[in-house]
Amino acid sequence: MTTTTIDHAENVEKGSSLWHDAWLRLRKNRMAMGGLIFFTAITLLCFLGPLVLRLPDPNALDLEARLQSPSAQHLLGTDHLGRDMLARVLDGGQISLLVGLVTTVMVVIIGVLYGAISGYAGGRTDATMMRLVDVLYALPFLVIAILFSLWVESHVGTLTAWIMETTNSERDRVFRITSLLPVFIAITALAWLTMARIVRAQVIGLRHREFVEAARSLGLGHTRILFRHILPNSLGPVIIYATLTVPAVMLFEAVLSFLSLGVQPPNSSWGILIKEGADRMDVTPALLLWPALFFSSTLLALNFLGDGLRDALDPQSSKD
Fold first, then answer.
1. Model's pTM, two decimal places?
2. Are 58 and 84 in contact (CB under 8 A)?
């Protein structure tokens, strides 16, 4: 009897979690995995490439080497001021990726907290919070982003000086980070609204489920129920939208930089490089080709990854 029981226990198939099943479905999606691998490679190339390849300073001018063709010394050639194009593209990629990732983290934090509280509270609190979201949705996104950018930019100099005095750091290093604050705040100002709506809808659908009622019957507080039981079960849509938010933020940063309202010199981004290339595309199309190729391929990879995550985390697909 004991032997039969042991054999039966060994033959019982082990359970599989939702995340493990989603990973298995994602691995089968070649386009999504290709997007993940490509995005990882681009990120490593932008942040580690300048060190490994020992590229020159992306802002170093060499007027005697202007508009050179690709060579062993300059793999992608030089621009109209003699700056190495590969160094410029990778340096611009660092800024664009940093803006996309950091802003998305801020959007997720604000949107998840706001939407979760609204959906869980319900009643008048939910109605009031969602009416505020509706009002903000009615505002012109680009105009508000520009106003926020200009308002924050006026305080960047003061913040830079304070950090320099506090940390005894060089101005260029400090300004490289502080000059991005207007872009972070300008895009985050309204980009969290959709995330808040998504999370609110998920929380409303889960707050009366059996496991939540069981947690209430055990005397658990509202904060613990919301953050330990409800939000973990809402991560699927959050991850999907966050993945799709990164390319959207990078694209909007490129628009702001194209209008000279985004990343400020001496920093560069793919948006700034595309603007510089577009101004000279009739003479030197390569100045537009390289940053546009890196930028568009990265956005495409992220979109493929986001679509793959949506299919992998869709509860309906697990029934197929």
1. 0.81
2. yes
pLDDT of residue 13: 52
Is the separation of the CB atoms in 194 and 249 below 8 Å?
A: no
Q: What are phi and psi of 169, to 5 degrees?
A: -100, 160
Half-sphere exposure of 47 (CA within 13 A, CB side): 9
Report the interhelical angle of 181-206 vs 235-258 (nearest 10°). 160
| Architecture of the 21-54+87-319 domain | Orthogonal Bundle (1.10)
Q: In the numeric block, which tokens belong to residue 251?
A: 């694209």
Instruction: Compute the C-alpha angle 296/275/95, nearest 5°.
Output: 65
Q: Check residue 111 and give its pLDDT.
A: 92
Low-confidence ranges of the chain (pLDDT < 70): 1-19, 153, 172, 265, 314-320
pLDDT of residue 317: 46
The pLDDT, as a whole number, for residue 75 is 85
- C-alpha closest to that of 130 among 64, 197, 85: 197
| Tokens of residue 289, six digits | 């080709």
Instruction: Scan for tokens 């170093």, then name that residue.
Output: 60
